[in-house]
Write a structure and sequence with these properties.
This protein has a single domain, classed as Four Helix Bundle (Hemerythrin (Met), subunit A) (Up-down Bundle), CATH 1.20.120. Helix content is 62%, strand content 2%. It contains 8 helices and 2 strands, in the order H-H-H-H-E-H-H-E-H-H. The protein has a two-stranded antiparallel ribbon. Helix 3 packs antiparallel against helix 4. The longest helix has 26 residues.
């Protein structure tokens, strides 16, 4: 006792106990913010008619987006905040940015058809990301349900990169861009399985031949990066339909939705 006041600590009532403030992990969110900046940079460059730099911004965002999740898992800093931040960043970098860049570069000259294609792509990217967040726990990790948004953005940005490298104006290839934007957008919201590469373990040892093949791949890319990279994006962009047809031909279930007891109602997911 001191001056009539009990100095011994007394437990606070449950309702008065201060809740500990939750922090935000810096490292993975730095990568996410950097990816977001890549999308923002791409939009600004498109507004200044620097479409080559706009495409480069999309590609930088792709690389950074592939790293934030891996960094979070490696450092054990996953969080619900990071997941939501990643989705919002993806919507800007792989949804709004490619749509706006495509419109400014080629689709503007098509009038209403131009902004129709750009909006369809943007809307499908939003739907794709929302469905991905909802179905995360029930989708087979080896596959994406529909074309992933970074790959869809790579198709548009790769086409712009290739055309600008060859000196082709956007107005000349407006209709091919129209078709590509619709294909990329609509493929994002299909149930077609696209290989995710998530089952590849980077920590495992590999045969020496694998390292040689990687070196050869890098050498091939350096022959002419715009053509080679766009060719890779096109192959991946159509690979899902090949997997789908092969599965159908073999009588294998084509859905990438796994049966889950955690989901009370999965009707409509298995198609």
């Amino acid at each position: 006792m001191h001056d009539g006041i009990d100095t011994e600590a007394t437990p606070l009532e449950p309702g008065l106990a201060k809740k500990r403030r939750k922090g935000i992990y810096v490292l993975p969110n730095l990568f996410t913010l950097a990816a977001l900046f890549g999308g923002f940079y791409a939009i600004v460059m498109a507004m200044n008619d620097r479409f080559d730099l706009a495409a480069a911004g999309i590609f930088c965002a792709m690389v950074l987006d592939s790293l934030d999740g891996r960094v979070a898992r490696m450092t054990n800093t996953q969080s619900a905040f990071g997941e939501q931040m990643d989705s919002l960043s993806d919507m800007v970098s792989f949804g709004a940015a490619p749509a706006l860049i495509s419109y400014e570069w080629a689709l503007r000259g098509l009038g209403r058809w131009g902004w129709f294609a750009a909006f369809v792509y943007c809307a499908c990217a939003a739907l794709r990301l929302a469905r991905f967040n909802v179905n995360t726990t029930v989708v087979d990790k080896r596959y994406f349900q529909g074309l992933p948004s970074p790959a869809a953005a790579a198709l548009l940005a790769g086409f712009i990169w290739l055309a600008t490298d060859q000196g082709i104006a956007g107005s000349v290839v407006a209709w091919p861009m129209f078709a590509l934007a619709l294909y990329s957008g609509l493929t994002m919201v299909t149930n077609v399985p696209f290989y995710s590469f998530k089952d590849i373990q980077m920590k495992r040892s590999v045969p020496f031949a694998v390292i040689v093949l990687i070196a050869l791949g890098i050498a091939v890319i350096n022959i002419h990066p715009p053509i080679v990279m766009f060719g890779v994006f096109v192959v991946y962009g159509f690979s899902g339909y090949v997997v789908y047809l092969v599965r159908r031909a073999r009588g294998i279930h084509t859905s990438v939705i796994s049966t889950s007891t955690d989901e009370p109602d999965e009707r409509g997911l298995h198609r």
